[in-house]
Amino acid sequence: MLKIDKPGKIIILNGTPRSGKSSIVAVIQNTFEGVWMNVGVDRFMTMTPEKYQPGIGLRPGGERPDLEPLVTIMYRAMYETIAIYSRLGLNVVVDVGHHEGYSVSLEILSNCARILNGLPVLFVGVRCPIEIIMERRLKTGYVGYTAEGNVPKPVSLWQQLVHVPGIYDLEVDTSVLTSDECAKLIHQRLEDGPPPTAFQKIERREFN
């Protein structure tokens, strides 16, 4: 039987849709040493039946309170999966967009942090200005500005809520850094930085 000397590393990339998380994931999987499993919102959405979509990808705004109990369970399932992979010695990179913009407070992020208690989690904020997000949406065929020239409300809400409470071990800005440069910074933080503490603070709700 394979001997597991230590748990696998966990990198969680948190940001809005179109912020560049998936591109960073690809670089990590292709260039970092060891096996890096990709677990995230997009993967879980492809497993979700059509009638329960968007499932774990439910955007902020409280539009589907009927789905919120399921979203809570799905996040728990995803993080329990991450924990299992890590305990088996597999590294995990996760792309996600945490927010609390539901019809009621679900406290998903702090509950997820509790699931990964004791495991090596690097929590990375992937930031990108709204103007660049809109450019990327237009290039990929998504809804652009409203008829009045405004940013659509769901997109604006993502931008406002995804980085709350804003506690990270590292932050990168994909409007000024390439995916390779972001991955390099993450690698340096893993190798040379102090032990990550963001998820511990979030679990203890040390938001101030």
TrEMBL record:
- GO terms for MF: ATP binding; transferase activity
- Name the active site residues: D42
Q: Which InterPro entries match?
A: CPT, P-loop_NTPase
List all membrane-crossing ranges.
none
Q: Which Pfam families match?
A: CPT
Alphabetically ordered keywords of this record: Transferase
Q: Would the keyword Chaperone be found if you checked this record's keyword annotation?
A: no
Residues that bind ATP, according to the entry? Answer: G15, T16, P17, R18, S19, G20, K21, S22
> What's the protein here called?
Chloramphenicol phosphotransferase
Organism of derivation: Neobacillus cucumis
